[in-house]
Amino acid sequence: MPYTSRDFGADILVEIDNGYDTVRIARWAFQNYHRPDLSNEDLKDKILQVAVMEEGPEFELSEDALKQFALQLIRSDPR
C-alpha cells in the first residue's frame, strides 16, 4: 500500500504532539522522502517542504502553520 498525503499529514500531527522541534521534524520528514512505498511526486515535493525547515529560519513553518499544512494534506486525500 503506498504512502499517501493523508498518511504524511497524520504523521506530521503525531510528530508535533511529540514536541515541536523544527530540526527534528525536518529530519524525520527527510527520512520519509526515501520510503520505498512513496511514489507520488507531488507528495515528495510536500515532504521536501517540511524537510527544508532544517536549512534556516526563513524556511521554518510555525507550529500552527505546520498543523494547517498537515490538515490540508489529510483533506486533499480522497481516500
Automatic annotation (TrEMBL):
This is Uncharacterized protein.
